[in-house]
Amino acid sequence: MSKNQDFTNDIIDYALTLGATLAGVAELKSLQSLNTNPPNLLENFNYAISIAVALPQDVFKLITNKNPGEIYAHYYTTTNSLLDLITLRLSEKILHYGYSALAIPASLSIGLSKLYSNASHKAFARGAGLGWIGKNLLLITPKFGPRVRLATVLTDIPLHAGKPFEDQNCGKCTKCIDVCPINALKSFDFKAYPVKREDVLDAKKCHTRLERIRKMEFIGVSICGVCIKVCPIGK
């Protein structure tokens, strides 16, 4: 393989073959200011391959303010496992070509009370052009709305990056803010991504609710889904 070869189509097609619903590439040069753990996580990579798997809309119809339901919990867990398998296989393919690759798990919290992970899958997905950051701080895709789960592969293989969504396209809609059972979401205008997450989300309130739900019988994972259910995009 030539070191000047563009592997984009090959990598994206392979991801879709493995089960991804959406896949795209973000250039990391414009994302160096992202908070990551460890802080130098992006240092040896040029691109982030963003992978999305859509969840069926009927699952979200079962969600209530009091209980997201064991079926949603099952889909959430299974989809995360699928994403981790896709990114693992994608990394293996990139390594086979002689380049570096690091798969970032779909759902791995390292600062649970603050709802942080190793890096923002949403930021990578937005940078890859898969969607924009909505008022619920989730990635909103044009076709599926926020009803997707995400994972990422960091790599140095030569790729062609997508074009980021420059503006969030939720317009005047505030359904996600209005429906939040604990008033954790705040109405705050931002262009691409809020400078301070606290301006949009009360993470402590959100964490308290997620922990309560996680401990419910037959749930076992930190989920809610109310703001996802009401989003009109992709319905």
Supply database-style keywords.
globular; 235 residues; 7 helices; 31% helix
Walk me through what this model shows:
31% of the residues lie in helices and 15% in strands. By secondary structure, it is α+β, with helices and mostly antiparallel strands. It has one domain (8-230). A hairpin with a 5-residue loop joins strand 6 (132-133) and strand 7.
Integer average pLDDT = 92
Low-confidence stretches: none
Number of helices: 7
Which range does the strand content fall in?
5-15%
| N-to-C SSE string, H for helix and E for strand | HEEHHEEEHEEEHHH
The computed structural class is alpha+beta
**Computed Rg:** 17 Å
> How many DSSP E strands?
8
Q: In percent, how helical is the residue content? A: 25-40%
Largest sheet: 4 strands, antiparallel
| Morphology call | globular
